[in-house]
Amino acid sequence: MSIFERYEMVCGVEVHVELATKTKIFCNCSTEFGGEQNTHVCPVCLGLPGVLPVLNREVVNLAIKAGLALHCEIADFSKFDRKNYFYPDAPKNFQTSQYDLPICKKGWLEFEVGGEKKQVGITRAHMEDDAGKLVHSGATISTSDESFVDYNRTGVPLLEIVSEPDMRSISEVVSFLEELVRTIQYTEVSDCRMEQGSVRFDINVSLRPHGQKEFGIRTETKNLNSFSSVRRCLEYETERQARLLDQGKSIIQETRTWDEGKGVTLSLRSKEEAHDYRYFPEPDLVPLVIEREWVEEIRQTLPEMPAARRERYKSLGLTEYDAGVLTLSKAISDFFDEALKNYEDAKTLANWVMVEFARLLNAKQISVEESPVRPSQLAELLTLIEKGAISGKIGKTVIEEMFESGKDPQVIVQEKGLAQISDTDALLKLVDEVIAAHPQSVEDYKAGKERAMGFLVGQMMKATKGQANPGVVNTLLKEQLAKV
After folding, report:
1. Where are the domains of the chain?
2. Which of 25, 291, 304, 421 is most buried (most C-beta within 10 Å)?
3. Main-chain dihedrals φ then ψ at residue 412, nearest 5 degrees
4. Fold of 424-481
5. Which stretch is the leader sequence (predicted)?
């Protein structure tokens, strides 16, 4: 009997999102990723004596925007608190966060998993400053002899989004997180670059026997930075907990870390409760009063969300699958929408974006933003194919050249002589030559074997290096074969 036949999984998540501001939450230091260690710092974010924080208004704007996208209530009155703990990456010995009066609460997010729609509650979303980064001498903290601290990230603004424990399977957790990250990405609240730590996941999971109403004892695994890590972590942690429960042992409520290389979770410390952090109101920051006009002004800037965009694509004739793939990335979706302004066949355009365009992006290992091919150029290429100026096969050659040179498709077609051959006189001689060279295929065609026609068309395309108009070739072949 499998784990999930014996037990029901209960999971909630905490997602830390770096907000897309140019400066930190309480000072003017840069939030740019990748600077030399300990160069994006000042007395404020280092917590030196005598300094005072000043709240970055753009942080509040982005927090409200994210909250609205997640259907949260935006608080009229909010405040910051000190979350006290002692750790090398926290130079102030506390984190400036929000406790009992967060800026966003009581939201929800709908997503699809296994072909069905599901809704997960959002308990709260609150603003806070990030800690520094520990750089370990070993592969993980548990295998290191020494660690160094880079404080560049200290004070970078975060939005911590806390879900309700509404998820009951690993697939639900991953699907929820994918939709959440997409939603944040679409609002441009964060760049969501997980490889740079812009989004980090904490996973709270417990098991309980089927039919039991009370939750089991949970563990929290911190700082996962990819969907695959979340999936692997949950697979391991549920197996570990099930094994202990099967043996009649108790689960210890604790904080754990994920070892990516070994594929295991490791114990870090006993799980802290709120009182362990000795929260109290931040005395150096005034409470935050948010007028309704402020909220409504930001509401007007909300873009089309992924779910709404998927529905719009389906109304254009795209399949559920196509709409889902195109909206996985806001950059790809925006590219498609821009190209659609100049080319109206949504299905053909979607196929080229999802297959040829995506293939070349992967081959070049570049992002959509770095692509040398603009949406208008792809639309121009597809128009050339639609008008019969070039064949679809030649079109694939042209787009590869577009990625190399950045030139317009019409220029490439002219420079390389790739225009489609539709001249019947020019093709007729080749048709006769192909028929004469393949008598067996001619006999097969006359015997009713349709594949023979495909072979002969292929020989024509080979002879013209793919430039012959397939429609004209088919017509001429049939006419000449009828005479044989």
Report:
1. 3-297, 304-416, 424-481
2. 25
3. -65, -45
4. Arc Repressor Mutant, subunit A (1.10.10)
5. none
